[in-house]
Design brief:
The complex is a heterodimer of chains A (293) and B (308). Chain A contains eleven helices and no strands. Chain A is mostly helical and 293 residues long. Chain A has one domain: MetI-like (MetI-like fold). Chain B starts with a helix and ends with a helix. The chains are: A mainly alpha (293), B mainly alpha (308).
Chain lengths: 293, 308
């Protein structure tokens, strides 16, 4: 857990200097870790002599060794290779899911703050209902209507996560709405849409960027959870949750099949949390700089 | 206060109703025929048709919804297709175990959040501050089923201290409760720590310090009373998340609770059972949030004044 020590607040000397990348240990350590993981899964074919679905029944459930760094699974596929290729699926699904949930969330959040009274009421209730709905049950309900696949999984992730983003965007937009410059724009005859897009949305963006990193971390875990419950990426396409589901039945006899793919999940979301932490610190120090002027 | 409570209660009932009706409709749109799944594999079409009649699936969607809602008013959740037993009995058997598990997880995470979060706020550069940051980051990045699996391997398989799964008294609760509490801890820890940090800056705390009151007493008695309020809100939001975590943990640990029941029900398209479980979980969420609002009302005199 070398990365965790960087979660401490930066020392006063570092913080008071100009908020650059250099003084922001969480931001760059998280960035380096994430880049390494992304590059490794992108160049998986160069890093591994095996294919992700190469079955070898003479090498079933072998523990980690020089030939198979992370061991092999129940049908002799190389676990390390599957984890690398699985990273592609997991990262893409989480990324698209994050963008989708932030888009829907910001739209709903803005509506919830700036819409007419009934619209605001409807958005609030929609957020309440969404938060009251256990997402695992939502997942099962939807995958029983439509066959589980990657687009369905992304839809599910957006459905489960938009309300969190909407809450935050709504809170910021409500704060901003009361400020003088927004009222002035209204008096000058700017339309509601123009006020929302040109005046209020820019103040939402800094929080949205921090939220993007945090949501992406949550999405990595979420994708893995749904795939682990069999509602996500379908076999034989490797994804981190799916690989763990394959290993679930051998949990007590072949530990590497569940522990090692999970480690990939933990490291990836940890890197994203570090990035989010670093971005937040940078935003806070930028804000502190503003108020000094 | 009572009119406020009543209004909130009506709103909550509406939310539960909307969720229940949408689950009802979604389930019936779904692929998979409960009658075919229940009947023997090579059953003749007329046998399957008989099952369909028994389940009441031959009637129109409207009629089915009507009799379902009518039953609800009488407290009757219907009969499970798969288990051929009243849904109420099945839920009542599993629910106490799930509630126990959820309660233990919440108790663990709340105590850790309060103690560790306060210590970290009190001593910003100590080991406590580091530990609370590390634990929050870890809890956020590790999925419940992974921490669960690792703990089963270490404590059940290698050390043999605790059972790997199932339900056999209190010892079966330990591992799943820890796994779940780790996943809900991060937000609670961050929120309490931030609230405690700002509370410790307040003037009444400075006054208490000037009076020479013991600093532990200041943090854990004087400051905690205010710092704990935001934590209450977080617990309300977490209940939905907690239920999700409980479902996943029940699968990993083969714990016979609501989550396992829900997945079984879904696999066999057991409509009445799924509807029953949704009603119970959604109501639990809504009731907890209502309770938290009431606690707020009762704890914080400022809110009480706003509404009266």
């Amino acid at each position: 857990m070398s990365g965790a020590s960087s979660l401490q607040p930066a020392s006063g000397a570092l913080r008071s200097r100009h908020p650059g990348l250099a003084g922001n240990l969480p931001l760059w350590s998280g960035g380096v870790l994430l880049a390494a993981i992304a590059l490794a899964s992108l160049f998986a074919p160069l890093l591994s002599p095996y294919g992700p679905n190469d079955i070898d029944l003479r090498a079933v459930r072998l523990p980690p060794s020089a030939d198979h760094w992370l061991g092999t699974d129940a049908v002799g596929r190389d676990l390390g290779t599957r984890v690398l290729y699985g990273g592609r699926t997991s990262l893409i699904v989480a990324g698209v899911g994050m963008i989708g949930s932030l888009t829907v969330g910001s739209f709903m959040g803005m509506l919830g703050a700036l819409g007419s009274r009934p619209v605001r009421w409807a958005v609030e209730r929609a957020i309440d209902i969404q938060l009251a709905f256990p997402y695992v049950l939502l997942g099962v309900a939807i995958t029983s209507v439509i066959k589980p696949s990657v687009p369905v999984l992304i839809l599910l992730m957006v459905l489960a996560a938009w309300a969190g983003a909407a809450r935050i965007v709504r809170a910021i937009a409500m704060q901003e709405r009361g400020k003088d410059y927004v009222k002035a724009a209204g008096v000058l005859g700017a339309s509601k849409v123009r006020i929302a897009l040109r005046h209020i949305f820019p103040s939402v963006v800094p929080s949205l960027i921090v939220l993007a990193a945090m949501q992406m971390a949550a999405m990595i875990v979420f994708e893995a959870t749904l795939s682990f419950l069999g509602m996500g990426v379908q076999p034989p396409t490797p994804s981190w949750g799916g690989i763990m589901l394959d290993g679930k039945n051998y949990m007590t006899s072949s530990w590497w099949l569940t522990v090692l793919p999970g480690l990939a999940i933990v490291l990836t979301s940890l890197s994203l949390i570090l990035i989010g932490d670093g971005l937040e610190r940078r935003r806070n120090s930028a804000r502190a700089g503003e108020s000094e002027e | 206060m009572w009119s406020y409570a009543f209004r909130r209660l009506l709103q909550s009932a509406m939310i539960v109703l909307i969720i229940v009706v949408s689950v009802f409709i979604v389930m019936r749109l779904s692929a998979g025929d409960p009658a075919r799944l229940r009947a023997p594999v090579f059953a003749r079409p007329d046998v399957i048709e008989q099952y369909r009649r028994d389940f009441g699936l031959d009637r129109s969607l409207f009629e089915q919804l009507g009799s379902f809602l009518g039953g609800l008013l009488r407290g009757d959740f219907g009969t499970s297709f798969r288990f051929q037993a009243p849904v109420t009995d099945l839920i009542m058997e599993a629910l106490p175990r799930t509630l126990l598990l959820a309660g233990c997880s919440l108790a663990i995470s709340l105590s850790v959040a309060v103690v560790l979060g306060s210590l970290a706020a009190m001593r910003p550069r100590s080991i406590w501050s580091w530990l609370s940051g590390a634990l929050a980051a870890f809890g956020q990045s590790a999925p419940v089923f992974w921490t669960g699996a690792v703990m089963v391997i270490v404590f059940a398989v290698i050390l043999g201290w605790l059972p790997p799964g199932g339900y056999n008294g209190a010892s079966s609760l330990v591992l799943p409760a820890i796994a779940i509490s780790l996943s809900i801890l991060p937000t609670q820890l961050r929120v309490l720590r931030a609230a405690m940090e700002s509370t410790l800056q307040e003037e009444y705390i400075a006054t208490a310090r000037a009076f020479g009151i013991n600093q532990w007493r200041i943090t854990f008695v004087y400051a905690l009373k205010n710092a704990i309020l935001p934590l209450l809100t977080v617990v309300g939001v977490d209940v939905g998340y907690l239920l999700g975590g409980v479902i996943v943990a029940e699968v990993v640990f083969a714990f016979p609770g609501i989550g396992e029941l829900a997945l079984t029900a879904l696999k066999s398209r057991d409509y009445p059972l799924i509807q029953g479980i949704t009603i119970v979980t959604a109501s639990a969420f809504v009731v907890v949030n209502l309770l938290i609002d009431m606690i707020y009302f009762w704890v914080d005199p400022r809110i009480r004044q706003e509404h009266s």
